[in-house]
Amino acid sequence: xxxxxxxxxxxxxLGQIPNVNAQIISKALQEIGIDVYYHTxxxxxxxxxxxxxxxxxxxSDIIILTGGLGPTKDDLTKETVSNFLNxxxxxxxHSLDKIKSFFAHRxxxxxxxxxxxxxxxxGASAIENKNGTAPGVLLNNNGKIIVMLxxxxxxxxxxxxxxxxxxxxxxxxxxxxxxxxxFYGIGESDLEEKLQDLIAQQTNPTxxxxxxxxxxxxxxxxxAKNRIEAQEIIKPVEDEIIKRIGSFLYGFDDDSIExxxxxxxxNFNKTISIAESCTxxxxxxxxxxIHGISQRFDxxxxxxxxxxxxxxxxxxxxxxxxxxAVSEQTAKEMAKGVRLSSGxxxxxxxxxxxxxxxxTHEKPVGLVYIGYSDxxxxxxxxxxxxxxxxxxxxxxxxxxxxxxxKMIQGLISD
Amino acid sequence: xxxxxxxxxxxxxLGQIPNVNAQIISKALQEIGIDVYYHTxxxxxxxxxxxxxxxxxxxSDIIILTGGLGPTKDDLTKETVSNFLNxxxxxxxHSLDKIKSFFAHRxxxxxxxxxxxxxxxxGASAIENKNGTAPGVLLNNNGKIIVMLxxxxxxxxxxxxxxxxxxxxxxxxxxxxxxxxxFYGIGESDLEEKLQDLIAQQTNPTxxxxxxxxxxxxxxxxxAKNRIEAQEIIKPVEDEIIKRIGSFLYGFDDDSIExxxxxxxxNFNKTISIAESCTxxxxxxxxxxIHGISQRFDxxxxxxxxxxxxxxxxxxxxxxxxxxAVSEQTAKEMAKGVRLSSGxxxxxxxxxxxxxxxxTHEKPVGLVYIGYSDxxxxxxxxxxxxxxxxxxxxxxxxxxxxxxxKMIQGLISD
Lengths: 414, 414
What we know:
six-stranded mixed sheet, CinA (chains A, B), five-stranded mixed sheet, Putative competence-damage inducible protein (chains A, B)
């Protein structure tokens, strides 16, 4: 079953609102094993909508349209589709009753154009809209399924999940199940080279690598009769990938590095404090997005000035003078300083040049040192990051959290 | 000039990520008076992409494609477009040099598939990607403009704004010019009520209010022959709006509260330090996104534990015991403590309950105290914020920066 989604509304083409409906519908269809091949947005214009619908009708089995069901003259979706299919529009009695009582309730007369909302193509069923006045439409036209839903996601989504998805999943036997593997420390092209043969042979499950902010995820997607069977199809491929590049694996599915670090701190019963310079508080911000972390995270020091590094972290002024604030030595003293002064088990530090100014030939923008200290060991990593100030901050903060993970997991020995 | 946008990537059709690029590009084109007629998403599949491109090529003057420029075999955009237009792909020398030095810098050999990224169709220009390795492409094919940009918005957006939009706006005569007024401390419906008559009468300029994270912006958009004429159309409406609700105005256009605070610190020659609890470093992170701020921002203390509040900020243990860590008194002592211990002119503090746990009947989730201290005055604001943990952190951090702004501007007297 090939599906596609058409969003109707000039506000989408003006960039006033994002097309969240396409994402919501795609996810929901994917979960019941229906492939979505296209998304299209078109404005409130009958000719262009008609052309778009014609193309979709020729190539897809399921067409879901959103938007253009409202009361105004701009709302043309039902009119255009009925016209194309040569089906007259007729009032849906239940919708008409509902709108009548809606207005009676408010003591207002029904506006003429509200009648328009109750019209549906002959042979179609109305989908009740519990959060608005425009009903949806479900039509089986000689085996092609055409669905029309309102544009506002708050109205669209319940109608999709309560009526459309149950209807469509009855028609399909298969389910789709995805498993995401998350890697850090390996580039996208490196990873792809190591999995080249698997990717070349992929059929079921499919293997999709995706790079994002220094991480690479691999999504394995299987099609099967049910979830258990899908998991069985994924398992050997997942195992083979982990066998090859498992040393870079840090999590699965909706894991984030801050979530993993928080779990490790709880599991190993460790407390942590953070001393950061160029990241300016971002590392502590990320970690404190995890609720309950107050039991493990004691404090963060944003030591932006050299004076702050000295006063709050006991970094020697001599060290800064000799090696600079951005140096392995300073990172080391910062990590140790925040650990000792906080009395935590682990101290982590970040010092670097986020730019856009402040770089030199020896110490370019993007040079970042990340330090780790516990009672047994002190360790510093050197990084060169690309991109904007915000990018460099982001990469540095997540690298600091990854260093904590690797040290707790014993993946790095000094 | 008719434009359309094609986003390439199976992850979009699976609903894994939203198509934010289409919205960003549409907005930018609309601002220079170019109408966007269609958005399309298609997967990483050469046949379907080729079909989609063929349709677009027949009906539009400008086609902007995003995604599919990466190093992997799935990345097919350049290959498909060159194939359709019958243009061979050739390496762009500048991009090749850049990738070579990128890998040399890391002491790694260039992966074979990274060469692929440097290829562009004959006759096209490469668009430099400052935040990634895949360059973009700008091609004028007998008057049709074809642009290819990378999928990640952080790479795409700067290339769009710095190269593509300036190129396209040279080609158009009519200009659209927007002015954004930014308000804080007034709700969207309050604001709309105060501007009701202006909004009802709007033609040129249009007036579009938008609420976001405790702020409301009003975008005034004028269509004219040139920028000066557009500004003249906007001026009287802008003046009228400021006359009515100017006391809530804090900035214009791409101002952010952190940018405004940084400017005020420079203009008034003040230094600042931040003590934060529930925001966990986010306030310092926001402020340190402004480059050059190291001259004005000395340090941030993320005093998550009571011990940290006492040790680093000299908050009396008695105060915490008597009033609680989330209280006016603690906020006051935190702000004063961070100011005095850092020797800065201004100290600001945030303490609250970000949730989802930890709320009580007297002190619910979302209760946040924000403190301000300088040599003359100490001031505390009480807030109740709604929403998720992340939301409450965001609202608290920007409210803290707004308090600093209002205090420096003398808008609050103790």
